Amino acid sequence: MESFQNPDWETEFNRFEQAISSSPAPIRVRSVIKLSALAHQSPESILTRAIPILAGLLRVSDDPNRSVQAAAAHCLRRIACRGGEFAATMGRCGVIASLLGLLLEQANDNGIALRRIWVKCLWSLVTFGSSIRVGLARLGGVEIVTRELNTWEDDSSRWCLLEILTALTTIRESRRVLVHNGGLKFLVEAVKVGNFASRERACHAIGLIGVTRRCRGLLVEAGVVPALVDLFRDGDEKGKLLAGNTLGIIAAHY
């Protein structure tokens, strides 16, 4: 796809499709990168047709360096960030399962750069496609995200994992899994970092989890009180209200 003012999108898409289906990895990567660069201006119909192709690239087996898969994940992230139904379409095309599989595959080597790409793509789907959160949870999303957080260094990508986690805690079963796999400390961490929407989701989940005595003790040990105080001090009006209510739940029963 060439970047010019008034492209013939149908012709350019046909060229993209042909390059992906019959070209070696370097040309496929170049074609996907061009699509990524045009994702913000491409017609929705073109991007919708491109999503199944990109989803298929995540599953290729003839890409030992993962360059094609990385380019596809980056492109999918840019498309998902446009909002609308793109993220939901990706979920239906199996993108979530592919990304989780890639994260599991990379867990035993030093592919941290690739893992960042998979995580950022997954973050975009969860952030701009709330309807796919149930599917992610059913595929073991909470377990995989908490495992990643246990080994992930404190870098510029960690907040993506925390925001994915808080999105999953809007689901009751995900909160139960988080309690049983020792992930409450990450929920407390999520109150302190990320955007306010994610911090508020974490706060709300803590309030729901904190109604049981055992969980309150674990949350206090994880430092929930100062985290909530910080949100109460620095948050917006909704954040202050949630933090105050959650502090009340923790304090009244602890």
Automatic annotation (TrEMBL):
Taxonomic superkingdom: Eukaryota
Coiled coil: none
InterPro entries named among the record's database cross-references: ARM-like, ARM-type_fold, Armadillo
Matching SMART domains: ARM
Keywords from the named record: Repeat
Gene3D superfamilies, per database record: Leucine-rich Repeat Variant
PANTHER family: ARMADILLO REPEAT-CONTAINING PROTEIN 4 ARMC4 (PTHR46241), OUTER DYNEIN ARM-DOCKING COMPLEX SUBUNIT 2 (PTHR46241:SF1)
Record protein name field: Armadillo repeat-containing domain-containing protein
